[in-house]
Amino acid sequence: MPDINRVSLPENFYDITSPQLLAQPEPQYLYAQMYMAALEADLATQSDVGLPGRSIGGAGAEYSSAERDRLELSKQIMAGVFAGRVDFTGLPGSMIRFNRPAFLDTTYSLASRRIGVNQTISVDPINVSSEQVSLTLERFAGPYDQVNQRPAPFGIDKFDASMGVHKLASMVGTHLRRDFHKFLDFNCALLLDQASVVARPAGMTNDDSAVTAGSFPLDYETVSRAERLADDANLPVFPDGNRLLVLTPTQLEQLKQDPDYTRSAKDWPQYNALFPQYVSSVGKLHIFKSTTLNKPNNSSSVPVHRGHLIAPGALLGGMGAPPHVAASTADNYGERALVIWIAYLAMAMADNRFCISVRSAASA
């Protein structure tokens, strides 16, 4: 006859949950860090949630921070990617416009500009031109209810909060910050995908050219061509004279298999110290890694990785008020807290010529 134990009689036993929290691998959200560095704002860490005077803290061990488990590849971010950083003083829907000169190319030959001895100079003026980009302030919230397709709050019961192994308010605060950071990162990447120029490996005329995985890996020639396209477009450089190239781990793996890249790439220890996400430099490009770039499938279901060559001034960012955690007044007399994050933000492309989309097919 078997012994009476947790295997033969599991109903009579319970397991103890350790207050030690295991790691959950998370990306760093490079573009979110850029945005927050440019606007100098982040969602504050929460220890208590709810309305003032009726907030819920609860018992239990502190939960992990949103940053603890991230792949920490870059701590200092080039905020210069953002051409405009604006603090709005208006309601959602408020708009601010940015002007830039639109230069007119005419004729520049000596003969066309020469003024003869008895020639009268024209007195009919010509106009100068200007282009305009708008940035609109909007209200955003999170997290998101995937089932009902709408932003929705996290809920905490006051009694349950007093019984948990981990402090529920701290747990919710971590999830709110992670959701906010991923929201920023996702939308910045989508904006940069709107680049007006695309560089692909030779023979890959469009994304659908890759009918099998591994058919068009990223190579040194593609990177060099992207740099040349940036030079031809007279794109500005960062203070050290370089531009930023952000690639996926797969693109970097493909690139490192090209002997031309391995011969040309340089590693600068001072950049490793300043930017832990820095990989190497080639030509006038500093190469960085991001695990959150977009990789949509083409018509043959082959993922196409979308890296970005970025010049300073590619994006615009604005903020109406610092992002914050808000609690619903429907708190059942203080017995339940419903909380979301709310942010009055604006983001847009300043100029889609200031980014080049560097694309390649997934590895086999």
Describe the structure.
The chain is globular. About 4% of the residues have low confidence. With 364 residues, it is α+β, with helices and mostly antiparallel strands. The strands form four sheets. It has a six-stranded mixed β-sheet with strand order 8-15-12-9-11-10. Strands 1, 4, 7, 13 and 14 form a five-stranded mixed β-sheet that branches. Helices cover 21% and strands 26% of the residues. α1 packs across α4. β10 and β11 form a beta hairpin.
Task: List key phrases describing it.
single chain, alpha+beta, 6-stranded mixed β-sheet, 26% strand, globular
Number of helices: 8
One letter per element, helices H and strands E, the order comes to: HEEHEEEEEHHEHEHHHEEEEEE
State the end-to-end CA separation: 55 Å
The neighbouring-strand order within the major sheet is 8-15-12-9-11-10
Task: Assign a percent range to the helix content.
Answer: 10-25%
Secondary-structure blueprint:
Elements (H helix, E strand, L loop, with lengths): L29 H10 L42 E6 L7 E8 L7 H4 L15 E8 L1 E5 L1 E2 L4 E2 L2 E4 H4 L6 H25 L4 E3 L20 H13 L10 E5 L1 H8 L2 H6 L4 H6 L3 E5 L2 E5 L14 E7 L4 E13 L8 E14 L5 E7 L3
Parallel strand pairs: 1-13, 8-15, 9-11
Antiparallel strand pairs: 2-3, 4-14, 5-6, 7-14, 9-12, 10-11, 12-15, 13-14
Brief rundown of the structure:
The chain has 364 residues and is α+β, with helices and mostly antiparallel strands. The chain has 8 helices and 15 strands. It is 21% helix and 26% strand.
